[in-house]
Amino acid sequence: MSRLARHGWCVATALLVPWLVLAAPAPLKLAGVPPAWPVLWLLPWALVDGPLSGALAGVGLGLVLDGLQLGPITQIPALALLGWWWGRLGRQGPPIERSFNLGLLALLGAALLGGSLLVQGALLQSQQAGAWVVAPALHTWLAQTLLTALLAPLLCSLQLLLWRRQTQGRRS
């Protein structure tokens, strides 16, 4: 069992992600596009708990979020890959603490997540012989990536601080 999963409230914070996706608070939107909430939750989780827990958390979060939408496009592969990659970064080298680093990792994560959704949408449209509208999809992708990168230093830093204290408190 992962170190963070032992704390019920840490796991319960994952339930905030689908709630925020559904609620989509207006003050936290850029040009009508919300941030990538799964990226903002998964980044600190994986950095603290490691690659296996990060990948499993990405799969679980992806399953919940895919259940909220209709259609064949899925977030699971991208979230699992991000959780594994960020978990490896958290285990190797010095701990990631600086706000700029968190913002950059969130930027890359949101870009990868949005890019995977764009590619899946383009592949589905090419199979259905329909015209795929590129401009709105790129607008959404760019706005979501930028907003996620801007919110990550604040939100991810707080989560990292709380979750690292929880896991260190267990060891003592």
Descriptive key words:
7 helices, 172 residues, globular, mainly alpha
Structure commentary:
The protein is mainly α and 172 residues long. The protein has one domain (8-171): Arp2/3 complex 21 kDa subunit ARPC3 (Orthogonal Bundle). It has helices at 8-12, 16-23, 37-49, 51-67, 76-91, 99-127, 134-171. The protein is globular, with a radius of gyration of 16 Å. The model has no long low-confidence stretch (mean pLDDT 87).
Gyration radius (Cα, Å) is: 16 Å
First CA to last CA: what distance? Answer: 18 Å
* Strand content bin: under 5%
Could you say what the CATH topology is called? Answer: Arp2/3 complex 21 kDa subunit ARPC3
Uncertain ranges: none
Give the total of beta strands.
Answer: 0
Reported CATH architecture: Orthogonal Bundle
How many alpha or pi helices? 7
* Shape category: globular
Largest sheet: none
Sequence of secondary-structure elements: HHHHHHH
**Category from helices, strands and their pairing:** mainly alpha
Q: Could you report the average pLDDT, rounded to the nearest whole number?
A: 87
Draw up the topology in text:
Blueprint: H1 8-12, H2 16-23, H3 37-49, H4 51-67, H5 76-91, H6 99-127, H7 134-171
Helix pairs in contact: 3-4, 3-5, 3-7, 4-5, 5-6, 6-7
